[in-house]
Every structure is written in structure tokens, then in C-alpha cells.
Design brief:
Strands 5, 6, 8, 9, 10, 11 and 13 form a seven-stranded antiparallel β-sheet that branches. Strands 1-2-4-3 form a four-stranded mixed β-sheet. A two-stranded antiparallel ribbon has the order 7-12. A hairpin with a 6-residue loop joins strand 9 (about 280-285) and strand 10. It has eleven helices and 13 strands. About 30% of the residues lie in helices and about 25% in strands. It folds into three domains: about 5-50; about 60-195, no CATH class; about 205-350, Sandwich (Jelly Rolls), CATH 2.60.120. By secondary structure, the protein is α+β, with helices and mostly antiparallel strands. The protein has helices spanning about 5-25, 30-50, 60-65, 70-75, 95-100, 105, 120-125, 140-145, 165, 170-175, 300-310; strands at about 85, 150-155, 180-185, 190-195, 205-210, 215-220, 240, 250-270, 280-285, 295-300, 315-335, 340-345, 345-350.
Length: about 350
Amino acid sequence: MRAVARFSMVVFLAVSVLAGLGVARFFPWMSPPVRTSLGVLLIGATLAEGYGGPMNCPLLEPELQALGGDAAYSWLAEQPRGGVLELPLAVNPVDSLPFQYNTLQHRHPIVNGFSGYESPLLAFLRGGASPLGSPEQTSGLVRGLRLIGVRYLVFHDRLFTDSLRWTTMLPDVLEQPDQVEQVRTFGSTTVIQLRPAARPQSIAELREIPRAAIRASASHNEVGDDDVRLAFDGDLETRWSTGAAQSGEEWLELQFDQPYSVARVRFEMSAQVVTDHPRRLRIESSIDGEHFVTVYEDDVLSQVLVGLTRRVNPLAIDIDLPPTPTTVLRLRQLGETLWYWSIDELTVWEN
């Protein structure tokens, strides 16, 4: 229905089958010389009808070669296999097709791939809440890219047009020496090779703590005092939300009906509201409800990127914790952003 002309392939196939049946039916009646001559004539006519002439193939984005891209891709071709993120991201995804073309030279997979549809990861990186160009998120961004297998960041410096957003991005990445393995410059193109990410330690088999065993309270409730229950109702169509921009003062407190050895907290949310993830999270554990110890404090961005490459709708953001006997778990949002903090479903796991 969208491209009716494609039915021509079915028509051509049917006509070809009919022609083949005709040849099979009538050729046996002919003498060998006539059959040979007619066969050669039919083959020649078929080749002549299908010949389209020479195809013009102009150079694709030759300015990238002038910027040092060709030398950079030649160097990449000799490096260990890993994902590539080309920067800046094109405003129009179609403009990233030259980067796909250049994979024929360097032979690495790229984040910027485009097939008419965007991956959830690329849509997030290009969206309004993109961490690209945000200095305070650079560390988490680079760590997350490493976790999903990206080994190379390719900066085409002269292609950056939004100077206010991008000016400090390259220096910000270079300020992560624990994450950067080496830097190579080719003209105005800079390639940063990231260190391979350490494999996360596997956690013993986990069991979800029953929702009925959790009593939750929150600092903010967009709808009403019992709004926090929407994060535990098993319905991904409902959510708890602060209803206000993250200011660093938001918290959730979970009280369990007995001590559990808490090992993981999972936030589930729709990919459409992934912008509402906490910008910085501190998780505190208490066995008596009075004395708390911090079992996690970091940004959540790296786990968001991992989640976007594993499963969407719902997107699962897993925060692994050192197994800790817990009766009260407190989640504090410490970052600042104009986006809300929202959770479709929150589950807690024990080992």
C-alpha cells in the first residue's frame, strides 16, 4: 500500500516464469540449429533489455578527506574491533550516511547508523536531554559508551556548528584519563580510543522482593499523597513522578516488612520518558531505620545507555549494590535538571 510500484517485481517474476514455460514447451519441436540460434538471440535480448549503462558514482563527502577523515579511517582499520561514535551527530539522520559509507574502510560498527529508523540509543543522544556537550555528564557518558562496546570517538572539529554546546566537549573527554587509552589527530579530525570496559561481576541468582513487602513514601507526589504507589502497582501505563524539575532534594524511602539482603534496584520506564531518569543518585541502607550507610552514589547515565541497548518499552535501569542486610532503603536524587524524576515501575531484588 505504501509503495505500489514494488508489485512490479511480482509481475516480472510471473512473466519470466511464463517465458520459461514457453521455451520449455516449444524448443523441443525445433531443429538443433534453429534452437541454438533462437536461444542465443533470446539471451542477448534479455541482457540488452536489462543493461542500464555505466553508473555515475561521485565521491561521497570529499570534504571529510580534506579534514583528515580518510587518514583517520585508515588508522581505525588497523585498530582492535570496537564501536565508533562519529561527532558531531548530524541534525538530519540522513546526513550520517557518509559515516556509514566510511565503515567500508574502517570496518567497525557505528552508533550513527541509519536505515530510515533511528535506534533508541541514537534518538536519546540526539534528543533534547542529550548528555553530549554537557560537561557535568561527560564522565557518565564515556563510561556508558564503554559499557556498550564503543571504543572510538571521532571528532570532526570543523563540522561542529553549535559552538556554545560543543566547544568544550573534546577537552571534557580528554579530562577522563582513566577512561581514555590514546588520542590521535589527523588534520582537524581527532580520534579518541577509549579503554575497554571491565566486565561487570556477575551477581548470584536474584529474587524480586514482593511488592506487598514494601511500604514507600516520597518527598514529591505529582498527583497526591499516594502517588508513589503507582511505582509499585505492576502497571507500566502509570507512573510516580515528582511533577517538578529535579533540584537535588528528591527522595524515595522504602520500608520492608523484614530484613532483606538487597542487591539490585531496578527502575523501569518508557523509552519516551527516559529523560526523567535521576541525574545523580545516592542509595542508603539501614537495618534499624536510624543509622544509614551509603551503598551507591553516582550518576545513572551509564546504566541508561546500557538499558537503551538491551530493552526498550519498558527500559530497565539496573543499579547493582553490594548485598546489604536492609530494612529501610533510601534513594536520594542529588542532581539538577529541568526534567522531572519519574518511575513507571520500581522493583528491588535480593540475593
